[in-house]
Amino acid sequence: MDADRNHPVRSRHEINSLIRRLTREQVEAALRRLQAGEQTPFSESTTYDVEFGSGKFPPKRVIGLALEELTGEVFTPYDFIGGVFSASFRRLEELQFRIVDKQGSVRGSRRLHTRGGKYGELTWQIVLDAVGAFRGGATRRQVSEHLAEHRPEFNLSNVDPDLNLLTVNSPSRGNFHPNRRPRRCDQGSRYDALFRIGSGNDSKYIPYQPAIHGVWELAALAGSEILRPRPIELGLEGELSQARERAVSEGAFDVLGIEDARRRVLATIVRRQGQPAFRDALMVAYEGRCAITSCDVPAALEAAHIAPYLGPKTNHVQNGLLLRADIHTLFDLNLLTIDAATMSVNLAAGLEAHYSHLQGQRLRLPPDQFDWPSVEAIATRSSLVKTGFD
Predict the structure, then answer these.
(1) Gap between the Cα atoms of 296 and 266, Å rounded
(2) 96 near 52, Cβ under 8 Å?
(3) Helices 24-35, 59-71: crossing angle, 10 deg rounding
(4) Is the pTM of this model over 0.90?
(5) pLDDT of 51-89, one tens digit each?
(6) With contact defined as beta carbons under 8 Å apart, do 172 and 226 qualify?
(7) How many CA atoms lie within 13 A of 350 on its CB side?
(8) Is the sign of the CA dihedral 373, 375, 377, 379 positive or negative?
(9) Cβ neighbours of residue 147 under 8 Å, at least 6 residues apart?
(10) Does 2 have pLDDT greater than 60?
(11) DSSP secondary structure letter of residue 372
C-alpha cells in the first residue's frame, strides 16, 4: 500500500514553493488522470472537493498528481499538508478552480491579487506558510528566522501582527479588520488557522484543531468595544485538564490503604489492557508485538479498539490493534491516527520530539490476512476524528 518515493525528502518550504509554481494546465492534467480512474494513496476529503467535468476530486489528491506533472516525481500524502489553510488549497483557489463542499455549495473564491501585491501574496499567508514549515509548530523567533532566510525581501515587522490575526486564542486578534465581527472559530474562516501554546518567548504556534483545542469565538466582552476570543466548548485538552483536577481531588494518599491501592492499580491495568479474550486474540494475531513499535513486553501491551467499543460484537480481532501502552493512549486521544489508504501512522502536531520516528510508519500486520485490521473500521474512525469525535 506504500506509495513509491521517487524523489528526495524535501522540506515543507520547498514543497510549498513547488505548489506555488503549479499552472492551471498541470492541475487539469492531474484532474484528467483522476477522471480516468487513476488510483493514488491520498485519502478522500472530508469537507471540500474540486469539481471538474462531472466529477469531484479531493484537493490534496489533485495537488499530489499535479506536482508529479510538474516534477516527474511521485508525491505521497505525507509530503505536504491539505486543508483550507494550506498552500495546496490556496493554489487551487488562485487558479480559479471550482471548489465545492459536500453539499455542493461553491466556496467563494478569494480572488487574491497575486501579481499586484508587494510580495505576490498577502503577508499573513506568507507567515502561515512559515509556521507550516515546522511540523511541530513554531515560535515567533523561528518564524522570523525562517522568513529572513527564505524570504529576505519580507518585512519582519509583519510577523507579530499576522500571528495575532490568525491565532484563535490571541487576546489582540480583535484589533484586526477581518476579526471585527462576532463568529465561532470552527466554521472554516481562513483567519482561524493557528493556536498558541505556552507563554512568553517560548510560546509556539500550531495548527488550530477545534476537537483538540476547543471551540472558540470572537465576542464582545464587558467593558470592551473590541472583540476578544473566549472558549465556548472544551476540546480534548480542556477535558483532560478537568479529568486531572478530579484525579487530584479524589486521590488523597492513605498510608493504611497501600494494599487496597495496589489492588486498584492492578485492576486498572487489567481494564486498560482490555477484555482478556480480546487481548489474548490480539496477542496471538500480532505474535505478542505492538503493531506500531514492535514492542514485545507483554505487560506493556494493550488491546485497542479501532471503532468505539459497543459491546462484545466489537471485540473482534479485525476491530483491534495490539499497542504499547503509551501508543494506545495517543491512539485513544486521536493524537496518533492511522491512514486507511496506506495503513500508516499520522501524528498530531507537538509529538515530534519523542515520536517523530513513527510518522508515516506502516502498521506491522498479522501474518494471517484474516486478522488484518478492518480498512472500513479505520476509515470510519478517521472520519469521526475529523468531525470532532474523541
Answers:
(1) 20
(2) no
(3) 120
(4) no
(5) 998 899 999 999 999 999 999 999 888 788 777 767 888
(6) no
(7) 19
(8) positive
(9) 126, 127, 130, 154, 156, 159
(10) no
(11) S
